[in-house]
Structures are given as C-alpha cells and as structure tokens.
Amino acid sequence: MAGSTTDQKVEAENGGDTETRRDFLLISTVSVGAVGAAIAAWPFIDLMNPSADVLAMASTEIDLSSIEEGQSITAMWRGKPVFIRKRTSEEIESASNVEMMDLKDPEQDAARVQKPEWLVMIGICTHLGCIPLGQKTGQIKGEYNGWFCPCHGSHYDTAGRIRKGPAPKNLEIPPYKFIDNSSIRIG
Amino acid sequence: MTAPTWKNPLVKWVDTRLPIFTFMHHDLIDYPTPKNLNYMWNFGSLLGIILVIMIATGIFLSFNYTAHVDLAFDSVERIMRDVNHGWLIRYLHMNGASMFFLVVYIHIFRGLYYGSYKAPRELLWIIGVAILLVMMATAFDGYVLPWGQMSFWGATVITNLFSVIPFVGDKIVIWLWGGFAVDNPTLNRFFSLHYLLPFVIFGLVFLHIWALHTAKSNNPLGIDIKGDQDTIPFHPYYTIKDSFGFGVFLIIYLGITLFTPNLLGHPDNYIRANPLVTPAEIVPEWYFLPFYAILRAVPDNFIDIFGLLPVIIDAKTSGVVLMFASILILCLLPWLDRSKVRSAKFRPIYRQLFWIFLADCLVLGWVGAKPAEGTMLIIGRVATFWYFFHLLILVPLVSKYEKTRDLPESINASVLSKRTEIQVPAE
Description:
The structure holds two protein chains of two kinds.
Chain A: H1 5-14, H2 16-47, H3 52-56, E1 60-63, E2 72-77, E3 80-86, H4 89-96, E4 118-122, E5 147-149, E6 154-156, E7 162-164, E8 176-180, E9 183-186
Antiparallel strand pairs in A: 1-9, 2-3, 3-4, 5-6, 6-7, 8-9
Chain B: H1 9-17, H2 20-30, E1 32-34, H3 43-62, H4 72-81, H5 86-113, H6 122-144, H7 149-160, H8 169-177, H9 184-215, E2 231-233, H10 234-259, H11 289-297, H12 302-306, H13 315-328, H14 333-336, H15 348-368, H16 374-401, H17 411-416
Antiparallel strand pairs in B: 1-2
Helix pairs in contact in B: 3-5, 3-9, 4-5, 5-6, 5-10, 6-7, 6-9, 11-13, 11-15, 11-16, 15-16
C-alpha cells in the first residue's frame, strides 16, 4: 500500500471507484427520467378530469315558492337530478323518530336538513346510480314511504336514508344555501 | 418448413429486405397442425375473421356517426334511414358483436374441455383472457354510442362499479366521466376508446397467435405432437375446413342480421337517453348476463354470515369484486388444474364437472336476465357459488385424485387405428 497519490488517482479512475461513479450516473439519469415521464403523464391524466366549462356549471339557483307541502320537484345540478321535497309534518316526525340502531348508514334527520320541511338531496341511488322513484304522485315510494329504486330494490325513508336493499349509503346531500326563504343555491 | 424460394422478383426483393412473405408462408400455409383436429378448432380463425368484419363495418359507421349527446341518437337514426345501406352496416356491426361473444365463449369452453390452457400454453391462455377483457370493454363502449336509454343507464351502472375502489373510488368515477354524471365528455371518450380498443385487440391477437405457433395447437387427444407424422400443413387442409365453418357461421350471422336484426337487442335503446328517467329494469346485453348475475348475487348480510374479515365489505363491493374475480380467476387455471392429462376425453370425472360448469354458466346467464328477487336470487347465489367452487376447489382436487384413462401412443397412431379413435363408452 505504498502507492503515491498519483497512483491512487489512476486507480480511482480505472478501478472499482469508476464503477460506482458510473452507477451513480446511470441510476440518477434513470430516476430523473422516470420522474420526468411521470410528470409528463399528469397532463394526459388530468385532461380526463372535469373541464373548466363543466366546473362552471357547478352551481344552480332554484325558486321554491311554488312547491306546496307534500310536493317534490326535481332540479338539475351538475347533470344530476336533485330531489327537493317540502315534507309534511308526518314525514318529518316519522323521519326523526327512527332509532339509530335501525339504520344501515346512521344519520340523524336533523343532520340531513337545514330547515326541517325542506329535504334537498341528490336523486341518485347510492348503489349503482339509478334514479329512485317517489318524486311524482302515484309512483312507488317503497316500504318506508320515501323513495324506491327500481333497479335493484333499495328502499329509502322520508329523510332519504337507506333502510332496505343493496345500496350502502343514504342519498347524498349536496352543498346548498338558502338565499332567502323561498330560494336556494346548490353548489 | 424451409424458407420458400420466391419466383416473383418484386416479392423476392421485398422478402430479402423484410421477410414478411416467408413469415406468412410459415404461419398461414406451412404451419404444422395436428391432423386430428375436430370442428371445435374452427372458432379461433373464425374469431379473427369476425374481428376484421367488426373493424370494417365500424370504420364505415364512424363516417356517419356524431359523438355528441344532442346529435348521437339522431345520427344513428340517420344511418338507419338515410345513409345508403347504413341499416345493413349497422345491423351487421350490432349483431356482429353478439356473434363475436358467442364464438369466443365456444372457443373458451373448447379450451376448458380439451385442457388447452395447460403447459406449455399458459401464456397463450392468459393472453386470451386479456383479449376477452378488452373485448368486453370495447363492446361496453360501443353500446353507449347510440345514446339510447340502455346506453346511458348501462354506462351509469357500469362506471359506478369503480366507486367501490377504496378511498379514491368517487374521484376515479368523476375522472372516468369527465364530469359529475355520464354526459358529453363521457360519450366523446367512449367513442375514441371504442375506435382504439379493436386495434389493441388486434395486437393481442397477434401475440395470441405467436404464442400458439410457438407451443403449437392442442388437439382433441390433448397429447403432444411427436413428429411430422402427427401433423398436416395448415393450408390447404385447415384453410378449407375453416372456410366451410365460416360458411356455416355466415348462414347464422346473416340469418339473424337480415331476418331478425333486433332479436338480441333491447327495445329501450331506441328511446333517446334521458338522465331523469331510469328504465324499469336495466338489462345488459346477453353476453354480459352471467357476470351481471354474479354482480347481483351477493347477499346484503354477506359479512354477517362469516364475521371474520377485519373490514366491513358491503354487498355492493363484494359483488363488484366477485364479478371481476370471475374473469381474472381464469388466469390462474393452468395452476389450479394440476392434471398432466389435458383432454377431458381421458378424465372421466373432470369431463362431467365440465358439463355441469357449462350448465352453471348458462344458468347464470338466465338469472342475469331476470329481476334479482325471490327464487331467481337464490338460484343466482347457488350458481355463483358453484362457479367459484368449481374453479377453486373441485378443479384442483379432482386433478389430484382423479384416475385418468390411458393416453394413446400418438396422434398418428390414434388416427390410423379406428379402435383408438376414442368414443368412450358410457359408464
């Protein structure tokens, strides 16, 4: 081991050390390349997400003044139907008197409404996306007098909570605000 | 099996630079094929022809189709009424899809009966399963394009299946839609993918045939090719046999297309898509019915029965998982079935199980067409159970304990002596 410094330098250039230097260059090049490729993939992936014009349609205002007690209307929001129902006092009562034990997706009635008479929810079955029946008079309302999905037989109660059938969750509540006593903005 | 010498100077010029003619000669003319293939071996080449028919009719349809929610339905009606022979091309394409699945299912069950998935053809089989999956995606995309009620609601139900993916499910569904519901962005990308995927299938078919010609064709006896005496060249022996089969196929295909073109369709798809009205019963195309039955078979309280799993999996999630598993599980079949004997001809127990399995799949298809309630639900559950019980339990067990019959010495010996042309007597 009596080599001079010059010898060591030559050894370093030709021997084992150059291997690690080469490995370092290889690994870092490949890593930077892989990260670059992953970053380049993002615009393509994100292109498939909702575009600005689709997002711009993301809020809608609805006038409630013409809805009588016990009536429902279906509005459109983000291409989805929104069920708005002015509930009767019996419906409110039956919805608030349910034991949490009896619910598949336990949620208080009060937590699902801003004003007890107005139930606003997305009218899409949480099973596989069908539109439940029960909006119009004469339609089947299911065993809990709320909504019934004809596709695979899910029953929802007067608060839109899942009571029976394959759907895993209650009907979703969209974000909404009362602008005044007789109109709301969804989204 | 030597490279042919080309007489045509142009062919020769090309072939020395790109041996495409030699390649085609090897794989379409010289290809040494077992001499004992029966008519069950017609369906592979038939599928290749159907793929070409589907691509051809599809390209011509696309000349007149408009992928926009406001225009798609009308553009399809225009093809049916105003475009010259548009009705014919569309009915050929529509029924061609049904024929494609009919033939591919026969092809798959042929493979199951004769053990075509076993070594050394495992990869060939797995590529086949991949082709089936891409075919299903293509057919589903295509069914959405006319933008009828079944198109819309089928798309809604199927894309919603992805919402069961943990944590990111809902985001993935929005990403698939390009919006907050199935809408114009969805229709556009489905059209694009419906045009793309057949070419992906074409590429996979190329790999499928490559793997086939490396391992060579299986045969009704399931024994290996031992030498030249066991084979005959593909052309003219099987080109002529396949042509005859294609003729028979055309009679059925054109018979349906020209005389009862809407037999396999659903009338609701002639109603324009309406996001506010769900049809009374959403039924997929017939070729998806067995899988639809599996999707709906899982009981609500599936977990309560076992109570063992660390997380709660609801009926929706487990249905979706089972449905995808029912196809992906086929990839494992070469390793689930340990029997060295390929053909069910020499496997008395497996042969009976095969027919029960075939019947089970037909029952699943029948159940899938009915509303999921009452007796139908029970039958669907039993049939779903049997599907997995067969593949995961019975196949491995039987392959371990079954006493198989003696195999013939060779393909040639079996063909030459009528005694060994096995018509196994009834037990």
